[in-house]
Predict the structure.
Amino acid sequence: NALYENGLALELANHANHMADILHERVSEVASETDKVTLDLEAPANAVFPILDLAVAEKLRERWAFYDWDESIHQVRLMCSWNTTEQEINQFASDLREACGL
């Protein structure tokens, strides 16, 4: 019940969605520099759905956990939660750049 008192649930959801917007921006920046990342969908709620080169995805999985979304096109699902930080997003973006050889 505590989640629904004083708007806490909405506050936590808004934070996750805001972090997904930032993640989308960071992934878009990398995608603009390489053909190893494609991002054609806007971030719906707290998820981002990039298409990653298989080698890039494998390298990222050494440090990050994420799901395959559409294996036929190598699309993955990246999720943000109530406790995702901008520092984590920046680190992921840095790791993505490195995995792409940038």
In short: The chain has a mean pLDDT of 95.
